[in-house]
Each structure stands twice: as structure tokens, then as C-alpha cells.
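Structure record:
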Amino acid sequence: MGAESRDPMRTHIGKFEILRLLGQGAMGEVYLGRDPSIGREVAIKTIRPALVGADVGGDVRQRFAREAQAAGLLHHPHVVTVFEFGTDEDLLYLVMEYVPGEDLAALMARDALQPSDLLEILAQVCEGLAQAHKQGIIHRDIKPTNIMVQREQGEWQAKVMDFGVAKLAGSEVTQTGQVVGTLAYMAPEYLRTGVAQSASDLFSVGVILHEGLSGEKPFRGGTTGAIVYTIIHDEPRPLEETVFEGVSPSVRALVARLLAKDPLARFSSATEAARALRAAKNPTWQAPLDDATVALPGHSTRDTRSASARVNRSRLLPWTITVLACVAALAAGTWIATHRNPAPQLPPVNTHINDVVLDEAAAQLETHPEHALKLAQEIIDATPETSPVDPDAYAIKIAALYKMNLIELLETAANEARDRKVDGHEILKNARFQDMLKKEHARPNKKLSAELRARLAKGE
């Protein structure tokens, strides 16, 4: 992407001279600029004029202003400094510190970091987060691409950036319960409730630590529903011993603690997490055993699982039995048919089992939308491309995503249903889908865009 992609007539934004284009994204561009008054190089983040013009509700402007406000409150060596926020004709822009390095995602992609380097970088990230948390700011989108890293005199220097979805104490710019951020790095309590806390940022750090050490995210799935379900309910993928080369084996315990389902079982503060991450660079360091670490590897997680987790498991039992019974019935039917006839002339979709599973998904929608999402997605995934998908599966999937406030993913699901030739008018007949539309219509602050709302209401 070159500088020719921007308006060739624009040589300045505000008082700042434009030197070159640094990058482009869906929201706009980032330029390298110069402050003429002091000669300092700066990064200038802009929003595309077309987006601003289409922003009837003001959310884009508010999000951009929130980034300036959040970062402007922070003065810390491990947070990118914001200098100015303004408008130039139809352009919104944010002027910030220019960090001539790479983001952490690029370093991880080319395997440029030793485990001790990663621990140091994430310790610095936690120090930056500690300052944000003291100011009542929760980042909510900690991920490798939002961490800029440079090396100065042989030492790594990390800076947290992009507070565009940050939550300010006392701010209601983001609707209560609105989930924003990047799914793979979201904490389970955030996905459950839509309410992030400082410990939610630490969970994101744990995801990055696991990913940086192993090359794989701790929670994976072939579908959105599967990822959400895994983050909320499943244990992270185990780490091999080989990933701890040159650092303390207790890093395994740190990862497990950062990724604890219960936010109270994580570190009490980002400062405490930073100390532990930096201490773990010493191969002889051992993580102290306390109330938050008794269920870490090396101890029996079966007996020390929290009471709330046991309650949640017990609540899952009825629908788990139902699903397992359906799967067992399907497997048995397949085995019998295969052995009686090597080429059975049976329909590829067992509609009876689909109905049982979707009925269970509908029953779970209000109290456990993530379960409903997973069950609906399993029906979709099990349907061959050559067969029609049950419209109720997409109806429940969309309603579950709405319930969980995953609105961007909801739009993707609606497009996916259309691509798979699912009749939108059949989706409209689903009672849960109709309930969702009624709730959206009654909300004073709409979750859905006017265009998407109209599409869904018309069955398009």
C-alpha cells in the first residue's frame, strides 16, 4: 500500500505536515507526520471521511474521541502518548507518539522473540495497563497488533496503543453490555456479561503469552460459536515443555493463572502480573503457591475447581445428556446402516435429531446463549453443502449472537445464511428470532444498524 492511495492534494492535516503513509485499515489511514513548531515526528491516525458522513448515530466519532480521551489521561513509558485530537474539514484525526518499531504480531509471526523476550515485553504491557487501570480505564482490546515494540540499545521497549474501545470509569459511550474487541482475546466474564474489568485485560495478556510461546492460541474452534464456548468453558490447550527454554517452568503456572475462568483467580493487579512475568525470566524462579494457584498444573484441578464452576457444570448436565443422546443415536444409526448396506440410501440430514438439538438450543437461549450458539452452529456445520440448512439453526444463531451483543458477528451470520440459500422468510417464522426483533424494536438505543434491522425484518 503506497502513499498514492491517499488524496494527492493533501499535504497537511491540521498544522501537521504529512511525510508518508504508514498503513491503512477499514477505518482509515495512519500517516507519519511532522509537527512544524518543534520538528517532532508524529503518527497521525485518521478516519475515512465516508465513514464519518455515514455515522448517523455518532458512534465512530465517539469511539475516536474516546481513544483520545483515554490515552490522553495516560502518561507512561509503556503507553503510546496522544498529543492532539481534532478535525480538518471533513477529516477526524488523532496525533500520537510515533514509535518506529513493529507490532508484537509481526515479531511473533516471524518467531523473532525468545521466551524471555516475550515475558519482558508482556511485563511492560502490564505496567502500562496498571497505569490505565489506576485511571479507571480498561483497554478491552489487548492483542498483539495493539502492542508496538522497538529495540533500543539491545533492550526491548513495548507500548500499548489503540484505546478506541477502552471503557472509561463513569462513561456510558458504549452501551451497557455491548461486547467490543477481538473475540480470540476476550475474557470469559466479558463474553458472558458484556462487562469488562481490569482482570479481563490480564486474561488477554495470558492469551498472548500462550500464543507467543506455543505459536497457537489457547482457545480455538472452527466456528465463532465454538470459540466462544471454548473460552467460557474449556481449559486452554496444554503447553509443551519445550516452550519454556531459558525461562522458569513456572511460566506454565503463570499462563494458567492469567487464563483462569474466574477473574478473582487471576492476579490482583496488573502490577502484580508484571512482577511475576519479569521474575519468570529467571530459570530458577518458582511461582509461589497461594489461593489463586492451588488449581494450577501439578495440582488436582478436579478437586479444587470453584463451587461456581461446579454449579455451572451441573446446570449444563441436562442439555449435555440430550446432545450426547442425540449424537449416540445418530452414530448407532450410521453404524447399523453402514453394515447392512455399504451404500445406504438415507437422507444426509437427520431432521429428527436436528429438531431435538434445536429445541434444546432454543430452551438455552435466554440463560445460556453461548450454549445455544454452539448447538445451532453444530447443526449448521453438520449439514452438507449440497443440503438445505434448517432455517431455525440460523434463526437461533443470530438470536444468540444478539443476546451476547456480538453484533458484528451477527451480521456475518446473516450474510452466511444468505450465501447458503436459507430462506429468510422461514427464519422469520422462528419464535426466538421474532422475540429478538421485538426487543430490538423496543430498545431506545438500537443495537443493529438501520440497514441490518430492515434486512432481518424483511427476511432478506
